[in-house]
Amino acid sequence: MAFTKLNNVRLHWRETGRKDAPAVIFANSLGTDCRLWDEVAAALSAKYRVVLYDKRGHGLSENAPGPYSIDMLADDVLALADHLELAQFAFVGLSVGGLIAQQLAVKAPERLSALVICDSAAKIGNDESWNARIEAVITNGLASITGPVMERWFTPAYHAEKQMELAGWIQMLLGTPNDGYAATCAALREADLTRVVTNIKTPTLVICGDGDQSTPPELVKQTADLIPGAKFEIIKGCGHIPPAEQPEALLTLLTKHFEEHIHV
């Protein structure tokens, strides 16, 4: 484990693979930490320098005061990349991490070799839905929304067949600070990149689980259609969290995209 003070916030990060290999940075979703990517990261580390980190307010990173913004979260990524002396890197973002990915591609396109937006969109939800979630979490804690969150994250088949694993993901969610979660919800509430994603020039892959109830495939495809040249792929038998539910299918898509666009 490594910790570094960046943008006045202590961020937790770790890396695997060769330091002389092309870099790939992964950003996790709301209510998860960087362990989400462990299986995918292990497979990619043979060929790439894989960097995982916890967003502010999540995992082992500092629970910095909110509200946050997507631009703030993107700046944290750039600061981490600078700290690691990564002039260029590929970026994979899931859910809120996908919004961070879009913001990076708009704000610092010269830093990106390839982009993957996973189960995300240029605009997710609305003020009413995010305000209600913030109120529930601040008033009653994350335990009060665990059931609905898990229904959106995973397919009914996963709930039926992977109860032990599901309990682990619930524990990860409950380990997120309530105020860090709420501050990230505020960033999601305010984010609307619909008008600017048309400017993305980075080679982009957009992925969605066919059973995603948080960012349904039709919503995710709308964003893919706005990005010039973006490829859109559906993962079958998968909800909102492909690295947990269908890691092998996700890895196949990532590997193909990286082989096409990252020079090793």
From TrEMBL:
<dbReference type="InterPro" id="IPR000073">
    <property type="entry name" value="AB_hydrolase_1"/>
</dbReference>
<dbReference type="GO" id="GO:0042952">
    <property type="term" value="P:beta-ketoadipate pathway"/>
</dbReference>
<dbReference type="InterPro" id="IPR050471">
    <property type="entry name" value="AB_hydrolase"/>
</dbReference>
<dbReference type="GO" id="GO:0047570">
    <property type="term" value="F:3-oxoadipate enol-lactonase activity"/>
</dbReference>
<dbReference type="Pfam" id="PF00561">
    <property type="entry name" value="Abhydrolase_1"/>
</dbReference>
<feature type="domain" description="AB hydrolase-1">
    <location>
        <begin position="22"/>
        <end position="243"/>
    </location>
</feature>
<dbReference type="InterPro" id="IPR026968">
    <property type="entry name" value="PcaD/CatD"/>
</dbReference>
<dbReference type="InterPro" id="IPR029058">
    <property type="entry name" value="AB_hydrolase_fold"/>
</dbReference>
<protein>
    <submittedName>
        <fullName>3-oxoadipate enol-lactonase</fullName>
    </submittedName>
</protein>
